[in-house]
Amino acid sequence: MTVRRFESAEHDPALRGFAFGRAWRDEIASTFTRYGELFAASGSSAAQVRTWGEQALAVTDGWCPRLTTEMNAIADGSGLPAWQIGALNARTEILAASAVRRGATVPRGECSTAVHLPRDGRPPRTIQTWDWHEHLRDVRLVWAYEPRPGHRVRTFTELGVLAKIGVNSRGLGVHFNFLEHGSDTDEIGVPVHLVARRILDEAGTVGEARDIAASARTSASTVITVVGFDRGHSDAVCLELSPAGLGEVRPEQDGTLLHTNHFLDPELARGERHADDSDSRDRLATLAERRPALRSADLTDRARALLSHAPDGAPLCAHPDADAPITDRWETLMTISLDLEASRLEFHPGGPCGVTPRTWQSF
Asked: Which InterPro entries match (predicted)?
């Protein structure tokens, strides 16, 4: 399972976006085709997806114009209409909007995140699984770029999507988990992936990241776990984004911060909207039981703490059911950690059950 790599030298978003789009022209087109299949299977017409993609560009332009400039430039470089790049970046919002219109929930996702803040001044220890649809395994990319001179960002994302999980040279990083709330709407707001991108581009502290997240009017829910490290000082918070407001979840007394796919903020949890077959709470309980291993300084030990499959336990490591519809073929496509001290990503292309000390890749 190949994860593509790309490094951008351009500081200007228009030049960077155009070069990116030109370099990955065919791959971005293929990514949109695959998402088109998922959108259709979720009940959205092509015309509606176009409208939502255009809305995503417009609302982003009012919030952070340079991100719209970069998306438009990717479209120009790849030869695709701009609304398709808007739709890729708003894929979370489109799936949520489709569910809202059908009066349904988005088929369950299974991402699990664990962070530990050591008390001895050493860097935070993080790990996450990224679970997504089996037929989208080829859209993975790690991308390094400089939004301004001297500020380096490394992100794991999908082809055509500006960011997801990542770390910057100011010692700040983000993890990413899906959520669902009763306030989610079909009026497309700022895409949550672009909230993560702006945090990586601009923030150097957890507080700055929080302010950026609070400034975005979202239409879909997500938790962005922000982790910071500066001269021996660590900090972390789970920012639960929803149209109903922004929740903050802080580490426990032992420095552990865990999140799966349900709200932990008490106020927002009252408006939770989740699939009936969700195993999010079971996975969170399993993470809590395994916190000693999740606090390990050894990355492989942390990954092995996520080794749990259904039906024998909570599926921290997901494998697709070949008989399930396209909307429900979940697979753990990445196991990923943030190295905040070195400003790099450490990842294994697949689930925890395939991890060995030699399968880790650095970027």
From this structure: C45_proenzyme-like (IPR047794), Peptidase_C45 (IPR047801), Peptidase_C45_hydrolase (IPR005079)
Look at residues 31, 250, 285 and name the one whose alpha carbon lies nearest to residue 136. 31
The SS3 assignment for 125 reads strand
Which residues pair with residue 256 across a beta bridge?
A: 116
Domain spans in the chain, listed from the N-terminal domain onward: 9-102, 112-362
User: Given the structure tokens 């079909």, which residue do they identify?
Assistant: 186
Least confident segment among 17-21, 60-64, 240-244, 327-331: 327-331
The rounded distance, in Å, linking the Cα atoms of 121 and 230 is 9
Classified by CATH at the fold level, domain 9-102 comes out as: Arc Repressor Mutant, subunit A (1.10.10)
Q: Are 118 and 112 in contact (CB under 8 A)?
A: no
Distance CA 218, CA 245 (A): 9
DSSP alpha helices (H): ranges in the chain? 13-23, 25-41, 46-63, 65-78, 82-89, 91-102, 192-202, 206-214, 266-269, 280-289, 291-294, 299-304
CATH architecture label of 112-362: 4-Layer Sandwich (3.60)
What angle separates helix 82-89 from helix 91-102, to the nearest 10 degrees? 80
